[in-house]
Amino acid sequence: MKLKKILAIVLTALCLFAAVGTVAYAETVSNPNYGVSRAYEYADSVSSRLYISEQTATCRSDADGCNVVSITVEQTLEKHSGWFWIWNSVDGANWTKTVNLNSISMSNTKSGLSSGTYRLKSVFTLTSSSGKTETITVYSEEKKIN
What we know:
The protein is mainly beta.
């Protein structure tokens, strides 16, 4: 009887943990300005896209800003650990690019990937003409390699 109670408590805790820890991601976020408030102060649109062909990943990050003088994007290819919501960086799959413009486009590839589930994490830092910064993190859709 005691074992059944312990098992019931553990299962209940796992169910609650799963319900609270829902993962959300956005492949593309844009602000068309159709009478709604802006989602971000300086970014008009940001996107993080992952394409996989065989064992090669192509990582694509794009952003457009308003009233910005520079944009930095840091790409990190991540692999799911197999446990809950734990993602690990893939060795040799981190890239950074900075431009002194109001838009950025960045594309990189990583080959020799093993089977598993992958996603691209793109961290954008936009700097306005007044020196203020805005940092936005966007995740791509998850892609599997069998």
